[in-house]
Amino acid sequence: MNYKSIQALALSLLFSMSTFASTEKNDSTEVANVVLRKWLDGSYLSSQIFLGYQYYNFPNSGANEFVVKRGYINFSKDISPFIVGRITPDITIDQEGDGEGDVELRLKYCYMQFKIPTWSFITEPSIYIGQVFTPWIEFEEKINRYRVEGAHFLNRIKQTPSADFGVTFTTLIGGKLDSDYRKLVNSRYAGKFGSIAIGIYNGGGYHALEKNSNKTFQWRVSIRPLPKSLTGFQLSATGVIGKGNTNLSPQWNMKSIALSYEHEWFNITGQGYSAIGDYAGCLIDETTGNSLLNKGNSAFAEIKLLKKKVSLIGRYDFQNVKSNGNWLHSTRYIAGIAYHLTGRNKIMLDYNQLVHSNNHPLADEQLFEILLELAL
Length: 376
Description:
Number of helices: 4
Strand content: over 45%
CATH topology: Porin
CATH class: Mainly Beta
Number of strands: 16
CATH superfamily: Porin
Strand order of the largest sheet: 1-2-3-4-5-6-7-8-9-10-11-12-13-14-15-16
Largest sheet: 16 strands, antiparallel, barrel
Radius of gyration: 26 Å
Helix content: 10-25%
Oligomer: single chain
CATH architecture: Beta Barrel
Number of domains: 1
């Protein structure tokens, strides 16, 4: 066989191998795509990011910075018609310790949802197991949709974490409200006569290690007394029975009553609470170790303008803590304006002022923010 024949044979073999490899690669890719499509069927991916610019004004100094306040990436998967899995990483800034200032990734939610068939007045009940939402904050965040500004009242003063390790049961009461209300006002917790959520948790919140053997019981009951004539009005009660998350396990009991009214063009809420201690175990007498009595109230209002493209918001938080026979007052005022881009995406300008009583050990604060919420 001469050189030209050998060259021709070699080229023919290379071409055949390349064609076979390409065909095999295409077949493998197609198989992988089929498997991936099947795995992703019934899967949902979304994100929510809070970022912006902040200017702090303290009594003797000021500071400003660009920030990524929070970031959530939600992935959920319908495993079966009655089982759903969800995992939500939480991006935040480390505020203490050796990693202070680092951008860190932690888990906010990681749970399995088991859907239970509707039975009589019990509508769409579900059990959530794992790192789950707690009864109150999840409900309140569906009315006051401005978490971009900061934590809601009971979460901010450490009276209830937004998520924890444990089990949550939820259900609507008496069927669901009509589709017009769910489309124009609120589709979450839209039970015709209200909703219920109860659960048992570690107690320290999703961002804390369990430091004692105690488990906390938390609950919420929301009643819609006039579903036809005053559809958006709800009366809610929530509470906690447990211990603060420290080795000393100080008492932590909390009860709260709230009124809310949701409308296509405005939202209003009012809330009052009374408690002994808090979930972090911080509100204690340093001498005796006994939990401190604390109480307070909060109000929130949103008015929608210009075809709902603009919202004016205001919030008032008041907390009173009894320490060494004296009451220590803290009052927070929040005012803001938001421009809604599309969906839940918005740009917001707000002013936040925290004022303490003269006998309070902490200094007053003022904060100006320009914030952006991205919900993809």
